[in-house]
Amino acid sequence: MSLTMTRPISRRGMLAGMGVAAGTTIAASMFSAERALAAAMPEGWRLGFADLESDISPHAMQLVQGRAPAGLIGDLYRNGPANFRRPGGDATHWFDGDGMIRRYRLDGDGAQLSARFVDTPKRRTEARAQAMIVPGFGTAPGGGAAVGNNDDASAANTNVIPVGEDLWALWEAGSPMKIAPDTLATRGFHTLGEGLRHMPFLAHPRIEPDGRIWDLGQAGSQAIVWRLSANGALEAASPLALPRASYIHDFTATARHLVIVLQPWIHTHTVFPVIDGLVWQPDLGTQVLVLEKDDLSQRRLYDLPAFSFFHLGDAWEERDGTIRFEACIEPDPTFALQGARDVLVGRMGAGHLPTLSLIALHGDGRGELQSTGTTGEFPRTDHRRAGLPRRFTAHTSLYQNGTLARGVGLFDWTSGKSTVHDFGPDHMVEEFVFAAGGADEMDGWLVGTTLNLAARATELHAFRARDIASGPIATWRAGHALPLSFHGSFVAAR
Fold first, then answer.
1. What is the CATH classification number for the domain harbouring 475?
2. What's the pLDDT band for 41 if we cut at 50, 70, 90?
3. Number of domains making up the chain
4. Vertex 286, ends 397 and 236: CA angle to 5°?
């Protein structure tokens, strides 16, 4: 089923007025249809947080509806935690499970699935101990945990991107882990540069249309700005002093600027687990730091109301210098603090419905934020327009609480409308990514996965990107139910 959600404001109101100014309160708004969904949780949702005990050998997926679209040839790679429990002790936070790379291969005729755990020092240590003992974001250290550097604690479980001849499995506090694209074998950590071993590298780099990679590494109020070539070679590693020690999971960028959103979730002291050293301080509000790529000393700082977030969309800059980008906002980090712990012990996690919102940063120093009124997370755009003016954002939608989405949508910033496909209450929807098929923006497909709870199997879906309303043009079903993953990339066949 598909539905179109219409913003109550006009194009002029969204892209000129922006309605909500800094200093006002953010309402946790959504449509009444979505409120109704929040009350009905699907049966069997715990399957999304279950353990896999071993790798998954390549096998054909079953075509259950439609036909493979001509031209959609390549690999969807996804990363996410897939093992949380061992006999001697469990992980206590969803974000701390062992990373597993999934490969969904599309050859123009059918689809094939394979999956393999990332062979991290953490995983090897815990296999020997038969307990989850390495400290993480929300998991305390156990007896025998020997952590000498950031990479010893890496779960390599958050994102996977193609770089040169490798895939990089990314975590937010350590080095990229190199993965073989064909076999998914672990090749070892990538050292970013001489004297830069074990340095933090966020799981959400911003990649320019020509392949250049920008990223941050953070330790409290100190950061590094990474600039890498398309093949991963270091071009620059620049120190950066931040105005505050905010928790940063994601940042964004235009063609000329880096944009760092500093939420009032502040690192106050070093402790394990990491989350215990973060304090929510809403009175501080949210700040946005804008840096010129060509001269990082040139900076601007904007003020916004307090909100919490994990993910941002690609930013763009208009002719008058205004910078705009999406943020998937929540009133506070309740889900990260408690909800992501709850789901591992069989309780539906506490949390707020994430709301897709648009932020504008004006040349006169004003920062503005406006909600679209629809739930939305995991924003993805046409990667060929990264940092450039654009019209569309793909997102997960129809959230039933802070964790579970049952829809995928496409928001049109020109019309102020989001068209959403509802998979129904038996599906847990993961991130969808764009695969190019033509020259125009979003001319191609949206490709992504759901966990079909009724079938107890993971499914792969392909949509025409600009025609969500027609539903998937093809759906394949795996022979396995894989736990929910976080992020991924589509790599077109060469």
1. 2.130.10.10
2. low
3. 1
4. 90
